[in-house]
Amino acid sequence: MKLAPFNRCVECEDIITNPICSDCLSVNMRVMVQEYAPLLAAQIYGAEIDGDTNCIKCGKGMGLCAHCFSKDIQEYLQEHNPVLAKEFASRFDFELRQKLTDFA
Question: Is pLDDT above 50 for 86?
Answer without folding.
Answer: yes
